[in-house]
Write a structure and sequence with these properties.
The protein is an all-alpha fold. About 85% of the residues lie in helices and about 0% in strands.
Amino acid sequence: MKKAIILFKKIINNPFLGGSLIMLVGSNLFNFGQFVYHFLAGRFLGKVYYGDLAVIISILGIVGIIQLALGLTVIKYVATAKDKRETKNLIKWFDFWSIWLGLFISMIFLISAPFLNKFLNFHQPIVAYLLSPLIFFFMVTTIGRSILQGLLQFKKYVSSLMVEVVIKIILTLIFVLLGWAILGAMTAFLLSVICALFITRKFLAENLLGKRENRPAIRPMFRYSSAVFTQGLALTSMYSMDLLLVKHFFSGAEAGIYASLAILGRVVFFGASPITNVMFPIVAKRFAAKEQYLKIFLISLFLISIFSLFIVGFYFYFPQLSILVLFGKEYIEGASILWLFAVFMSLLSLAMLFTQFFLSVGKTKIVSVFVTAALLQVILIWFNHESLIKVIQMGILSAALLDLCLIVYFIYAFGNR
Protein backbone atom coordinates (compact mmCIF):
# COMPACT_ATOMS: atom_id res chain seq x y z
CA MET A 1 0.00 0.00 0.00
CA LYS A 2 2.83 2.36 0.90
CA LYS A 3 4.55 1.67 -2.45
CA ALA A 4 1.30 2.40 -4.29
CA ILE A 5 0.96 5.75 -2.50
CA ILE A 6 4.57 6.65 -3.35
CA LEU A 7 3.99 5.71 -7.00
CA PHE A 8 0.80 7.79 -7.11
CA LYS A 9 2.65 10.80 -5.67
CA LYS A 10 5.38 10.41 -8.28
CA ILE A 11 2.77 10.37 -11.05
CA ILE A 12 1.00 13.45 -9.67
CA ASN A 13 4.28 15.36 -9.26
CA ASN A 14 5.45 14.49 -12.77
CA PRO A 15 4.57 17.51 -15.00
CA PHE A 16 3.41 15.37 -17.91
CA LEU A 17 1.84 12.31 -16.23
CA GLY A 18 0.30 14.35 -13.41
CA GLY A 19 -0.89 17.01 -15.85
CA SER A 20 -2.36 14.36 -18.15
CA LEU A 21 -4.20 12.70 -15.26
CA ILE A 22 -5.59 16.02 -14.00
CA MET A 23 -6.64 17.10 -17.49
CA LEU A 24 -8.10 13.68 -18.34
CA VAL A 25 -10.25 13.55 -15.21
CA GLY A 26 -11.09 17.28 -15.18
CA SER A 27 -11.90 17.61 -18.87
CA ASN A 28 -14.13 14.54 -18.86
CA LEU A 29 -15.93 15.73 -15.73
CA PHE A 30 -16.49 19.03 -17.55
CA ASN A 31 -17.78 17.17 -20.62
CA PHE A 32 -20.10 15.15 -18.39
CA GLY A 33 -21.32 18.40 -16.85
CA GLN A 34 -22.00 19.75 -20.34
CA PHE A 35 -24.03 16.61 -21.04
CA VAL A 36 -26.05 17.19 -17.84
CA TYR A 37 -26.64 20.81 -18.90
CA HIS A 38 -27.98 19.66 -22.30
CA PHE A 39 -30.03 16.92 -20.65
CA LEU A 40 -31.69 19.38 -18.26
CA ALA A 41 -32.21 21.98 -20.99
CA GLY A 42 -33.64 19.41 -23.40
CA ARG A 43 -35.89 17.88 -20.75
CA PHE A 44 -37.30 21.11 -19.28
CA LEU A 45 -37.24 23.46 -22.28
CA GLY A 46 -38.92 21.19 -24.79
CA LYS A 47 -38.05 20.76 -28.46
CA VAL A 48 -38.82 24.33 -29.57
CA TYR A 49 -36.74 26.22 -27.00
CA TYR A 50 -34.00 23.58 -26.93
CA GLY A 51 -33.68 24.00 -30.71
CA ASP A 52 -32.97 27.71 -30.11
CA LEU A 53 -30.34 26.86 -27.50
CA ALA A 54 -28.67 24.34 -29.81
CA VAL A 55 -28.36 26.99 -32.53
CA ILE A 56 -26.77 29.44 -30.08
CA ILE A 57 -24.25 26.83 -28.97
CA SER A 58 -23.48 26.08 -32.63
CA ILE A 59 -22.72 29.77 -33.16
CA LEU A 60 -20.35 29.65 -30.18
CA GLY A 61 -18.73 26.61 -31.80
CA ILE A 62 -17.99 28.64 -34.93
CA VAL A 63 -16.45 31.41 -32.81
CA GLY A 64 -14.56 28.62 -31.01
CA ILE A 65 -12.47 27.93 -34.15
CA ILE A 66 -11.03 31.45 -33.82
CA GLN A 67 -10.43 30.82 -30.13
CA LEU A 68 -8.65 27.55 -30.91
CA ALA A 69 -6.16 29.36 -33.12
CA LEU A 70 -5.62 32.13 -30.60
CA GLY A 71 -5.51 29.71 -27.67
CA LEU A 72 -2.76 27.50 -29.09
CA THR A 73 -0.77 30.60 -30.05
CA VAL A 74 -1.07 31.90 -26.48
CA ILE A 75 -0.07 28.52 -25.02
CA LYS A 76 3.00 28.24 -27.24
CA TYR A 77 4.30 31.76 -26.65
CA VAL A 78 3.67 31.71 -22.89
CA ALA A 79 5.26 28.26 -22.55
CA THR A 80 8.36 29.26 -24.55
CA ALA A 81 9.00 32.64 -22.89
CA LYS A 82 12.65 33.01 -21.84
CA ASP A 83 12.10 34.29 -18.30
CA LYS A 84 9.45 35.46 -15.83
CA ARG A 85 9.63 39.06 -17.01
CA GLU A 86 8.91 38.10 -20.62
CA THR A 87 6.18 35.70 -19.46
CA LYS A 88 4.40 38.39 -17.46
CA ASN A 89 4.65 40.89 -20.30
CA LEU A 90 3.20 38.38 -22.77
CA ILE A 91 0.35 37.56 -20.40
CA LYS A 92 -0.53 41.24 -20.00
CA TRP A 93 -0.54 41.78 -23.77
CA PHE A 94 -2.56 38.64 -24.48
CA ASP A 95 -5.09 39.68 -21.84
CA PHE A 96 -5.26 43.18 -23.33
CA TRP A 97 -5.72 41.87 -26.86
CA SER A 98 -8.36 39.35 -25.77
CA ILE A 99 -10.45 42.13 -24.23
CA TRP A 100 -10.37 44.27 -27.36
CA LEU A 101 -10.92 41.32 -29.70
CA GLY A 102 -13.78 40.13 -27.51
CA LEU A 103 -15.33 43.60 -27.63
CA PHE A 104 -14.96 43.75 -31.41
CA ILE A 105 -16.58 40.36 -32.04
CA SER A 106 -19.31 40.94 -29.44
CA MET A 107 -20.17 44.31 -31.05
CA ILE A 108 -20.57 42.58 -34.42
CA PHE A 109 -23.05 40.16 -32.85
CA LEU A 110 -24.85 42.98 -31.04
CA ILE A 111 -25.33 44.87 -34.30
CA SER A 112 -26.36 41.63 -36.02
CA ALA A 113 -28.88 40.67 -33.33
CA PRO A 114 -31.99 41.92 -35.24
CA PHE A 115 -30.90 39.99 -38.34
CA LEU A 116 -30.18 36.86 -36.29
CA ASN A 117 -33.64 37.07 -34.72
CA LYS A 118 -35.27 37.32 -38.12
CA PHE A 119 -33.16 34.64 -39.80
CA LEU A 120 -33.08 32.09 -36.96
CA ASN A 121 -36.59 32.77 -35.64
CA PHE A 122 -35.71 32.80 -31.94
CA HIS A 123 -38.82 32.40 -29.81
CA GLN A 124 -37.47 34.84 -27.22
CA PRO A 125 -35.77 37.65 -29.22
CA ILE A 126 -33.73 38.86 -26.24
CA VAL A 127 -31.46 35.79 -26.46
CA ALA A 128 -29.93 37.15 -29.67
CA TYR A 129 -28.81 40.21 -27.71
CA LEU A 130 -27.42 38.04 -24.89
CA LEU A 131 -25.07 36.44 -27.42
CA SER A 132 -22.98 39.61 -27.47
CA PRO A 133 -21.93 39.70 -23.77
CA LEU A 134 -21.68 35.90 -23.72
CA ILE A 135 -19.16 35.92 -26.57
CA PHE A 136 -17.15 38.72 -24.93
CA PHE A 137 -16.80 36.98 -21.56
CA PHE A 138 -16.32 33.60 -23.25
CA MET A 139 -13.45 34.98 -25.37
CA VAL A 140 -11.60 36.57 -22.45
CA THR A 141 -12.12 33.50 -20.24
CA THR A 142 -10.83 31.12 -22.91
CA ILE A 143 -7.67 33.15 -23.46
CA GLY A 144 -7.14 33.22 -19.69
CA ARG A 145 -7.40 29.42 -19.59
CA SER A 146 -4.91 29.17 -22.45
CA ILE A 147 -2.48 31.27 -20.39
CA LEU A 148 -2.91 28.83 -17.48
CA GLN A 149 -2.10 25.94 -19.84
CA GLY A 150 0.99 27.75 -21.08
CA LEU A 151 2.09 28.17 -17.46
CA LEU A 152 1.47 24.40 -16.96
CA GLN A 153 -1.04 25.24 -14.21
CA PHE A 154 -3.43 22.43 -15.11
CA LYS A 155 -5.14 22.25 -11.70
CA LYS A 156 -6.17 25.89 -11.96
CA TYR A 157 -7.28 25.35 -15.57
CA VAL A 158 -9.53 22.46 -14.52
CA SER A 159 -10.83 24.47 -11.53
CA SER A 160 -11.99 27.18 -13.93
CA LEU A 161 -13.84 24.60 -16.01
CA MET A 162 -15.50 23.08 -12.93
CA VAL A 163 -16.68 26.47 -11.66
CA GLU A 164 -18.31 27.18 -15.02
CA VAL A 165 -20.10 23.88 -15.47
CA VAL A 166 -21.35 23.50 -11.86
CA ILE A 167 -22.78 27.02 -11.74
CA LYS A 168 -24.27 26.58 -15.21
CA ILE A 169 -26.12 23.40 -14.19
CA ILE A 170 -27.44 24.84 -10.90
CA LEU A 171 -28.60 28.15 -12.40
CA THR A 172 -30.13 26.48 -15.46
CA LEU A 173 -32.24 24.28 -13.23
CA ILE A 174 -33.35 27.25 -11.11
CA PHE A 175 -34.08 29.68 -13.96
CA VAL A 176 -35.86 27.17 -16.18
CA LEU A 177 -38.05 25.98 -13.30
CA LEU A 178 -38.91 29.64 -12.68
CA GLY A 179 -40.35 29.70 -16.20
CA TRP A 180 -37.66 31.77 -17.90
CA ALA A 181 -37.39 29.20 -20.73
CA ILE A 182 -34.51 29.81 -23.18
CA LEU A 183 -33.74 33.11 -21.45
CA GLY A 184 -33.08 31.14 -18.26
CA ALA A 185 -30.68 28.71 -19.96
CA MET A 186 -28.84 31.58 -21.66
CA THR A 187 -28.65 33.66 -18.47
CA ALA A 188 -27.26 30.66 -16.60
CA PHE A 189 -24.66 30.18 -19.34
CA LEU A 190 -23.65 33.84 -19.23
CA LEU A 191 -23.37 34.02 -15.42
CA SER A 192 -21.38 30.78 -15.27
CA VAL A 193 -18.85 32.13 -17.78
CA ILE A 194 -18.57 35.39 -15.81
CA CYS A 195 -17.86 33.39 -12.64
CA ALA A 196 -15.29 31.31 -14.50
CA LEU A 197 -13.66 34.52 -15.74
CA PHE A 198 -13.51 35.83 -12.18
CA ILE A 199 -11.74 32.72 -10.87
CA THR A 200 -9.41 32.59 -13.89
CA ARG A 201 -8.32 36.21 -13.42
CA LYS A 202 -7.83 35.54 -9.71
CA PHE A 203 -5.41 32.75 -10.64
CA LEU A 204 -3.58 35.13 -13.01
CA ALA A 205 -3.71 38.19 -10.73
CA GLU A 206 0.01 38.18 -9.95
CA ASN A 207 0.90 38.10 -13.66
CA LEU A 208 -1.51 40.93 -14.53
CA LEU A 209 -0.09 43.44 -12.05
CA GLY A 210 1.90 46.39 -13.38
CA LYS A 211 2.15 48.09 -16.76
CA ARG A 212 2.68 46.40 -20.09
CA GLU A 213 6.20 46.71 -21.47
CA ASN A 214 7.32 46.52 -25.13
CA ARG A 215 4.73 45.00 -27.41
CA PRO A 216 5.66 41.53 -28.70
CA ALA A 217 6.14 41.11 -32.46
CA ILE A 218 2.68 40.50 -33.94
CA ARG A 219 3.65 39.22 -37.41
CA PRO A 220 5.14 35.85 -36.31
CA MET A 221 2.17 35.35 -33.96
CA PHE A 222 -0.23 36.04 -36.81
CA ARG A 223 1.55 33.57 -39.11
CA TYR A 224 1.48 30.92 -36.42
CA SER A 225 -2.16 31.50 -35.47
CA SER A 226 -3.13 31.41 -39.18
CA ALA A 227 -1.58 27.95 -39.48
CA VAL A 228 -3.38 26.77 -36.33
CA PHE A 229 -6.66 28.27 -37.59
CA THR A 230 -6.28 26.41 -40.89
CA GLN A 231 -5.55 23.17 -39.08
CA GLY A 232 -8.58 23.75 -36.83
CA LEU A 233 -10.86 24.18 -39.85
CA ALA A 234 -9.48 21.00 -41.44
CA LEU A 235 -9.92 19.03 -38.22
CA THR A 236 -13.48 20.30 -37.73
CA SER A 237 -14.22 19.34 -41.34
CA MET A 238 -12.95 15.80 -40.86
CA TYR A 239 -15.30 15.03 -37.96
CA SER A 240 -18.24 17.12 -39.23
CA MET A 241 -18.47 17.01 -43.03
CA ASP A 242 -19.19 13.27 -43.09
CA LEU A 243 -22.32 13.88 -41.02
CA LEU A 244 -23.44 16.74 -43.28
CA LEU A 245 -22.91 14.60 -46.39
CA VAL A 246 -24.82 11.71 -44.84
CA LYS A 247 -27.67 14.13 -44.10
CA HIS A 248 -27.59 15.13 -47.79
CA PHE A 249 -27.36 11.69 -49.39
CA PHE A 250 -29.29 9.44 -46.97
CA SER A 251 -32.75 9.32 -45.43
CA GLY A 252 -33.53 11.04 -42.15
CA ALA A 253 -33.59 7.71 -40.29
CA GLU A 254 -30.18 6.66 -41.64
CA ALA A 255 -28.76 10.10 -40.86
CA GLY A 256 -30.03 9.70 -37.29
CA ILE A 257 -28.28 6.34 -36.95
CA TYR A 258 -25.06 7.84 -38.30
CA ALA A 259 -25.36 10.76 -35.86
CA SER A 260 -25.59 8.31 -32.95
CA LEU A 261 -22.44 6.55 -34.21
CA ALA A 262 -20.70 9.92 -34.48
CA ILE A 263 -21.56 10.88 -30.89
CA LEU A 264 -20.31 7.55 -29.52
CA GLY A 265 -17.28 7.44 -31.82
CA ARG A 266 -16.12 10.90 -30.77
CA VAL A 267 -15.61 9.55 -27.25
CA VAL A 268 -12.24 8.35 -28.57
CA PHE A 269 -11.27 11.74 -29.96
CA PHE A 270 -12.44 13.97 -27.12
CA GLY A 271 -11.44 11.45 -24.46
CA ALA A 272 -7.85 11.40 -25.75
CA SER A 273 -7.58 15.17 -26.36
CA PRO A 274 -6.53 16.06 -22.76
CA ILE A 275 -3.30 14.10 -23.30
CA THR A 276 -2.55 16.17 -26.41
CA ASN A 277 -3.47 19.36 -24.56
CA VAL A 278 -0.92 18.58 -21.84
CA MET A 279 1.78 17.50 -24.28
CA PHE A 280 1.63 20.70 -26.34
CA PRO A 281 2.89 23.27 -23.77
CA ILE A 282 5.42 20.88 -22.21
CA VAL A 283 7.01 20.02 -25.56
CA ALA A 284 6.96 23.68 -26.64
CA LYS A 285 8.67 24.71 -23.39
CA ARG A 286 11.32 21.99 -23.61
CA PHE A 287 11.96 22.66 -27.28
CA ALA A 288 12.51 26.37 -26.60
CA ALA A 289 14.87 25.51 -23.71
CA LYS A 290 16.72 22.99 -25.94
CA GLU A 291 15.85 20.15 -23.59
CA GLN A 292 14.84 16.59 -24.50
CA TYR A 293 11.20 16.54 -25.64
CA LEU A 294 10.71 13.51 -27.91
CA LYS A 295 10.09 11.24 -24.94
CA ILE A 296 7.04 13.30 -23.96
CA PHE A 297 5.61 12.89 -27.46
CA LEU A 298 6.28 9.14 -27.53
CA ILE A 299 4.60 8.65 -24.14
CA SER A 300 1.61 10.63 -25.44
CA LEU A 301 1.51 8.43 -28.53
CA PHE A 302 1.55 5.31 -26.37
CA LEU A 303 -1.21 6.55 -24.03
CA ILE A 304 -3.54 7.63 -26.84
CA SER A 305 -2.94 4.36 -28.72
CA ILE A 306 -3.83 2.31 -25.61
CA PHE A 307 -6.92 4.43 -24.90
CA SER A 308 -8.07 4.17 -28.52
CA LEU A 309 -7.58 0.40 -28.62
CA PHE A 310 -9.60 0.04 -25.43
CA ILE A 311 -12.57 2.03 -26.80
CA VAL A 312 -12.45 0.28 -30.19
CA GLY A 313 -12.33 -3.09 -28.42
CA PHE A 314 -15.25 -2.17 -26.16
CA TYR A 315 -17.36 -1.07 -29.11
CA PHE A 316 -16.40 -4.21 -31.03
CA TYR A 317 -17.52 -6.59 -28.25
CA PHE A 318 -20.36 -4.51 -26.72
CA PRO A 319 -21.81 -2.35 -29.51
CA GLN A 320 -25.46 -2.97 -28.66
CA LEU A 321 -24.95 -2.14 -24.98
CA SER A 322 -23.24 1.14 -25.89
CA ILE A 323 -26.07 2.21 -28.19
CA LEU A 324 -28.93 1.00 -25.97
CA VAL A 325 -27.66 2.86 -22.90
CA LEU A 326 -27.39 6.24 -24.63
CA PHE A 327 -29.86 6.13 -27.53
CA GLY A 328 -32.25 3.21 -27.19
CA LYS A 329 -33.56 0.49 -29.50
CA GLU A 330 -34.36 2.85 -32.38
CA TYR A 331 -30.63 3.22 -33.14
CA ILE A 332 -29.57 -0.41 -32.67
CA GLU A 333 -29.23 -0.88 -36.44
CA GLY A 334 -25.85 0.88 -36.33
CA ALA A 335 -24.35 -1.49 -33.74
CA SER A 336 -22.43 -3.63 -36.25
CA ILE A 337 -20.39 -0.68 -37.56
CA LEU A 338 -19.88 1.28 -34.35
CA TRP A 339 -16.38 -0.08 -33.88
CA LEU A 340 -15.43 1.06 -37.38
CA PHE A 341 -16.40 4.63 -36.56
CA ALA A 342 -14.24 4.34 -33.43
CA VAL A 343 -11.33 3.27 -35.67
CA PHE A 344 -11.87 6.41 -37.76
CA MET A 345 -11.85 8.61 -34.65
CA SER A 346 -8.75 6.79 -33.32
CA LEU A 347 -6.84 7.56 -36.51
CA LEU A 348 -7.99 11.18 -36.31
CA SER A 349 -6.82 11.36 -32.66
CA LEU A 350 -3.36 10.18 -33.70
CA ALA A 351 -3.29 12.71 -36.54
CA MET A 352 -4.21 15.46 -34.08
CA LEU A 353 -1.42 14.37 -31.75
CA PHE A 354 1.21 14.39 -34.51
CA THR A 355 0.04 17.76 -35.83
CA GLN A 356 -0.02 19.37 -32.39
CA PHE A 357 3.48 18.03 -31.80
CA PHE A 358 4.74 19.58 -35.03
CA LEU A 359 3.04 22.88 -34.18
CA SER A 360 4.59 22.87 -30.70
CA VAL A 361 8.08 22.85 -32.26
CA GLY A 362 7.22 25.49 -34.85
CA LYS A 363 6.68 23.27 -37.90
CA THR A 364 3.56 24.91 -39.30
CA LYS A 365 3.73 23.94 -42.99
CA ILE A 366 2.59 20.42 -42.13
CA VAL A 367 -1.00 21.70 -41.71
CA SER A 368 -1.30 21.61 -45.52
CA VAL A 369 -1.34 17.80 -45.26
CA PHE A 370 -4.31 18.01 -42.88
CA VAL A 371 -6.16 20.29 -45.29
CA THR A 372 -5.48 17.88 -48.17
CA ALA A 373 -6.84 14.96 -46.12
CA ALA A 374 -9.99 16.92 -45.25
CA LEU A 375 -10.64 17.69 -48.92
CA LEU A 376 -9.89 14.07 -49.86
CA GLN A 377 -12.45 12.82 -47.35
CA VAL A 378 -15.19 15.01 -48.85
CA ILE A 379 -14.33 13.89 -52.40
CA LEU A 380 -14.21 10.21 -51.46
CA ILE A 381 -17.57 10.33 -49.66
CA TRP A 382 -19.17 12.37 -52.47
CA PHE A 383 -18.36 9.65 -55.00
CA ASN A 384 -18.62 6.64 -52.65
CA HIS A 385 -21.74 6.68 -50.48
CA GLU A 386 -23.60 3.49 -51.29
CA SER A 387 -24.04 2.74 -47.59
CA LEU A 388 -23.17 4.08 -44.14
CA ILE A 389 -20.32 1.60 -43.83
CA LYS A 390 -18.89 2.91 -47.12
CA VAL A 391 -18.95 6.47 -45.74
CA ILE A 392 -17.06 5.36 -42.64
CA GLN A 393 -14.56 3.45 -44.77
CA MET A 394 -13.86 6.59 -46.80
CA GLY A 395 -13.24 8.44 -43.54
CA ILE A 396 -10.88 5.70 -42.36
CA LEU A 397 -9.01 5.76 -45.68
CA SER A 398 -8.49 9.53 -45.62
CA ALA A 399 -7.45 9.52 -41.93
CA ALA A 400 -5.10 6.55 -42.46
CA LEU A 401 -3.39 8.30 -45.40
CA LEU A 402 -3.09 11.43 -43.24
CA ASP A 403 -1.47 9.42 -40.43
CA LEU A 404 0.89 7.75 -42.90
CA CYS A 405 2.07 11.11 -44.26
CA LEU A 406 2.54 12.48 -40.74
CA ILE A 407 4.53 9.40 -39.65
CA VAL A 408 6.76 9.62 -42.72
CA TYR A 409 7.38 13.31 -42.03
CA PHE A 410 8.12 12.55 -38.38
CA ILE A 411 10.71 9.93 -39.32
CA TYR A 412 12.24 12.32 -41.86
CA ALA A 413 12.40 15.26 -39.43
CA PHE A 414 13.19 13.48 -36.16
CA GLY A 415 14.47 10.02 -37.10
CA ASN A 416 18.09 10.80 -36.20
CA ARG A 417 17.35 12.34 -32.78
